[in-house]
Structures are given as C-alpha cells and as structure tokens.
Design brief:
Layout (H helix, E strand, L loop, with lengths): L1 E5 L3 H12 L3 E6 L2 H7 L5 E4 L5 H5 L8 E4 L5 H13 L4 E5 L3 H9 L4 E3 L1 H14 L3 E8 L2 E6 L10 H4 L1 H5 L2 E12 L5 E8 L13 E7 H13 L1
Parallel strand pairs: 1-2, 1-4, 2-3, 4-5, 5-6
Antiparallel strand pairs: 7-8, 8-11, 9-10, 9-11
C-alpha cells in the first residue's frame, strides 16, 4: 500500500512513521524543509513541496497512491486546497483532518472520503481513561460498537472463560487473550514473553495480569466498567 501524508506537524509525522512501521510505503510531504528533513529516515520518501501546486504534486506521482492523508491543522485554506487538488488528480481515498465544524463541512463538500477530528477524538480518549482506567486500548469500528483491550483484574482471576460469564452477563465477546509467560533465558535469568491466544476456548483461564480483548456495544461495556469500579 502506498500512502501520502501531507502536513508533518506532530499529528502528521506520527501518522506517517506509524504507517511506515506497519509496512506501508509512505510519501511524507510538507512545505517546511526542516520538518521533511527530520522524518526522511523514518519513511519511504520525504519531500518538501507546495501541495497547492498541481505540477509539484504530479512530480511525486501522487495519482499512484492508494490513500492520501491531509494532516494539516494550522492552515485551513491550505488544507482545503490540498484536498481539492488531490481529488482533481484522481486520488481515490482522501482522509483529511478537520479542526472545526465549518472546516469539516467544507472538506466533505469538496470530496474528502473520511474526516479525522483529532481534538474531539482525543477528548473521548482522555474521558475514557478517566472513567475506565483499566482499559488499555479502545477502537471504535462502528457507531456504538468498540473493540477494547482491558485488564479484568482480580475479580475474574482464575476463572475460565465460561465461568467468567462475560458473554452471558454483558453480551460481550472475548476474541483474544494476551498473557505474560515466564521463561528462563540462555544465561539463566528469569524473563517474560508475550503469548497471544487469538482463538480462546471456553476452558481457557483468565489470569490477573492478562490483557483480554473484548468486542461489543458501548452500553454493554459501560455496564462492565461500572461493575469493575464497584469491586
């Protein structure tokens, strides 16, 4: 997969590096040569150019990318012009960052495929961490539904998946278990390795420090979180 990331501020550079680490071919673009220089060794290709100029974008074969992410947040006009130019040049999937409702509306009107609202999403993440500190990661994949990585703690320690009754009591499905497995290194030292069971069986046991991956609706997760807080 080839992905262009336009705008290399904190959000854009982190996105570009993460995509590259996950195996994507990443073209990182910004008008600021200093920002381009800082990231050049951590992506496939980094280039300084003006994304509002058609000739400049054509020079990096932008039409060949599978997706483009417009991560510009501090200049709404440039963000809008970048999305319009990408659509003009035939980029099929354009994901754009919006910093306001008006910005979001304009981006949708000119053809952005998806909108990222970083400030709103960060607010939700912070709120989730305050309300449910035992949640390690939370991924929203559809309206009202999430995949959650959580430590269930002592309440479920030593129970099998069947005995936990998580599915019966909360209508949540356990899709994976991550365990820390102790072992002895070649030089005789104690260490741990991570073992992921992505096909958990009913008689598998939940240990206190296991990371349990659950999928289900927000309302059912909230019931589980409330019960965990009470114990």
């Amino acid at each position: 997969m080839i992905v262009a990331v336009i705008g290399l501020g904190t959000f854009g550079s982190k996105t570009a590096i993460s995509l590259f680490e996950k195996g994507a071919e990443v073209i990182a673009i910004d008008i600021n040569e200093k920002l381009v220089d800082q990231i050049k060794d951590r992506v496939t290709h980094a280039v300084a150019l003006n994304v509002t100029e058609e000739r400049s974008l054509r020079s990096v074969n932008i039409s060949d990318v599978d997706s483009a992410i417009v991560a510009i947040g501090d200049n709404i006009e440039t963000s809008i012009m970048a999305v319009a130019m990408l659509r003009k040049l035939g980029v099929g999937r354009v994901v754009a960052r919006a910093t306001s409702k008006l910005h979001e509306h304009v981006l949708r009107e000119i053809g952005a495929s998806e909108i990222i609202k970083v400030e709103e999403e960060m607010g939700e993440i912070i709120a989730s961490k305050i309300i449910a500190p035992h949640v390690l990661q939370r991924y929203n994949f559809a309206a009202g539904y999430s995949l959650v990585e959580i430590k269930l703690g002592k309440r479920f320690e030593g129970r099998t998946l069947v005995e936990s009754k998580i599915r019966q009591n909360y209508s949540l499905n356990i899709v994976a278990l991550q365990k820390r497995v102790p072992y002895i290194t070649e030089d005789g030292k104690s260490a741990y390795k991570i073992s992921i069971n992505d096909t958990p069986m009913p008689m598998d046991i939940i240990d206190e420090n296991d990371i349990v991956v659950l999928v289900g609706s927000e309302k059912n997760f909230n019931r589980l979180f409330n019960d965990l807080e009470e114990k």
